[in-house]
Amino acid sequence: VTTGCRNWILTIEDTRAHPPGSESSNTLPEVFLSGALHGNERVGPTTVVEVAHLLLESAACEALPRGLPPSPDADVEVKSNWESDLAAAESCRNKLAQRGITELHRRWLARLVTTRRIVIVPTANALGYFQNRREEAGVDPNRDFPYDLTDPKLCMQTIAGRTINELFREHLFQLSITFHGGMEAIAYEWGAPSYLDWMSPDDEAQAQIANAYSRYAGGFGRHRPYQTGTMNDVVYFVRGGMEDWAYAGSFDPDRVIPCQPEQYGGYPKERTIYDESTLRTFNMLVETSDVKSPARDDLGTSHDPFNTNSQGNGHISRNIRLALLALDLVQPYVSIVGANGLALRDDVVPLTYRGDRSCAYTKKIMIPPGRNDTLIEWTVGGAMSVDFTTVLFARWGDVPDIVDGASQYDPEHLGLAFRYAPAMGGTTRWHQDGPQPPPSEAISSSISTMGGDSTLGPIFRTMIDTSDFQIGETIAVIAVANVDKSWAMQPDDVNPDLPPQSHIVNARTNPQWRHTQASTGKVIQGRNDWYSIPLTLVIGPMQVDEIDSPAGVSLQEGAFEISDRYRMEYGYNFEEGQDGGRDENSQRLSGGGVDENSQQLNSGGVEDDSQQSKVVGKTGGMGDGVITVVVVIIVALVSAFTVVHYKRREQLRRGLKVVMSDEDEHRFGDGTISYAEGGIDSNPDESGMELPKFSID
């Protein structure tokens, strides 16, 4: 009997905002991060674990305090819990800020957690990682995928290959990063010898994304930003590579063969027969460093990870940034950030229910009557070029039910009630020209100063005429954007001669694109228009200069916030007019405390034996008593977000309280991956602060 190493799989998603089986859950954009397909290439595993740690720590912090301030007549326990949450929120925010995670960075990271599904395999080649060898039992996992091969016995020989294959069969990944080492480059399709002198159908988008990765990752010391290009040009061609398989396996069937390996008792041939949806992923190869196991002084630290000029910059730091950019780019988003000079709070908060028009109460401001110059400011992310963007607005009572604050929709569903402001265009912070219009031009106070211009996207602005709305009426304001139309462009030397075939390009350029995964119900729907969560404007009963602003309520240049939290805290009862209603669940979530389910997930400690929770199971057809896929919960990383375990093809879901470990290491199999959280080989920066270094030992 062969004894092997465990494969760990971490899935990060917010099942409060996206209940399992719901439309929003089934349409979550999915990203895959692979740390080590080659066991002796050591930067990737630490990078992806650090990414998970940073995401979950930021999201758990941003989710505090939970619920709304308690009402004056709430019981002592509810008030005590609220005060504890406030103290915890202040503490975690301060700790993040001390490490260079600004308020805007924290909110951005939290948005990524609650609006994406992120699947991470730190050491797919766990045996090779443990042995510090490239291969798994003598087989190179990156020659083990059924693409551009002719011998069916020479694919799916490894547990690494089978693990990744099973994950792709359970998800519709749009973006993926596979970390390697041995040179410094970011490479994309094609990498197969059959396409040696050709470009892929998605070459334009691949080139733009690779260049954005290189810019955001940056360089340090003698290490320049990554060179970019096709694998055939900047690396070398291979048969059986993971990258081309993940990209083209569903649209280039002539180069895919069903595998019939003999290792580990064989593997079912039908597991390598694919439908038209599974394999259309931008799976980019990131060659992290010339040295496969770089010196520790070149890895970087956890301090100031977004500052490329920091002394803590290094191989791990820059690849954390690169991975986070992939998570952002997987889907466009639009957010209204200011109105009449008032900076608005983020409308996407982890562990918060966002359906049933809850936005009509949670993102709500009052403005004076009779104004024809109501200023609206918004931003666009998850894209590079903003080809078209504007604002539309209507009385809430005239807005179709499909506008619920949680879903995207098609323009024809909006009806005739909306008025449109003039359209404009620009670029996001990921574009080579930077964000345009620049965030420094923001009028709403604090938008451009909380974290600095480099941490915020473009600021678009327009004036809307609200003069004909009456006192007490409520108005829904929505920003919309079309993005990245250039991704659909193609060079002349494309092979196969097809239009763009990837999910990520078609999802934002082709409304006719729709792919459904039959086994899971997951859907990718193409669209041109991306809509923000609505802002609610309430026409106030008096001119703004006649209103005394209570403590905690912002009053600036004709607007102040009257979201539910302010009504609860200060006892206001503004006339709301027609606002679309609120269902029973929304009332429960807004009623002065945390709901029963939230208390269960977030208080009272971790569920029994969760600190060592494991689910052991074969990925199918590997024979009894051989290497199995094991999923272990990394408790030091887990917040109240769901970690998904795989046992055969079943999914077990569990919500856990965040537990920040005092330990300095996360252990993977028999190897060790350290994270910088507790004085590991401390190294002082210029201020004398002790900076823990990353480790790949």
Round the mean pLDDT to the nearest integer and report it: 80
Dominant shape: globular
Q: What's the number of extended β-strand segments? A: 30
Indicate the radius of gyration in whole angstroms: 25 Å
Q: How would you characterize the overall build of this protein?
A:
The protein is of the alpha+beta class. It is 22% helix and 20% strand. The strands form eight sheets. Strands 10, 12, 13, 14, 16, 19, 20, 21 and 22 form a nine-stranded mixed beta sheet that branches. Strands 1-3-2-4-7-5-6 form a seven-stranded mixed beta sheet, with helices on both faces. A hairpin with a 2-residue loop joins β25 and β26 (650-654). α2 (43-62) runs antiparallel to α3 (76-98) and α2 (43-62) crosses α4 (103-115). The protein is globular and about 75 Å long. The two termini are 29 Å apart. Residues 447-455, 542-557 and 565-689 have low confidence and may be disordered.
